[in-house]
Design goal:
Length: 262
Amino acid sequence: MAAKGESAATLQERAYRWVEPRAWPKGLSPFNRVVLVLIVVASALAVIETEDTVVAPAPKLFVGLDLAFGVIFLIELALRFWVAGVDPRWAGLSGRLRWLLRPISIIDLIAILPSFLLLGGTDTFMLRLIRLARILRIARLGQFSEASLMLYEAIRSRRYELTVSLLAAGIVLMVSATLLYLIEGEVQPQAYGSIPRALWWSIVTLTTVGYGDVYPVTLLGRICGAFTALAGIGLIAMPTGILAAAFSDVFQKRRTQKHGGE
């Protein structure tokens, strides 16, 4: 009995090295490379299915492919659930349940379920919305990429600075929207008749997009608009500079670690 238990544990550890993206000695395992390709193909299929002229000649083919991908990803998720216990963080039943409640695991489930819940059915908005949840599979590509880890590390290391810049942008948005509501509200009630309406103009102006669908016509309104546009240049540049510095630090750190390891 003990030998059987040891054999099962060994098999689980071997499977873990193949299934867990960061457990393979170098790069991705052949298993994860196949999964990577399947994710891209399944996501592309979900996009293509939105074009009726492509699906109409062979609707059953797309339904079959959708179901096949659903089965494959469900088996893969079950396999990951089984081997997760090799990692001490997810050991035992409670650990595996915590693993299953991670955001990325929940995304997996949301992306898989439409393949089984909505076979056939009428073309309603809710049906289309749930089917498009399959595109969430593309979010899983981050698990297989070192670049995604570096992105997360860079954002996390500058989370306080980014929070301050976002807070400053939010204050400017509210102030400019309030001023335009007071100045232009009676002149253009459709565009500035409330602070939420004026907020659309503030967002478009502050981000320097400038659609031109709504704009102030009074002198005071134009002066306020000019200051909002000028403030937007600095407020947009602020998080850009923060992230650029963070990425530089992370790249330098990884480069130092690689050279140190060599």
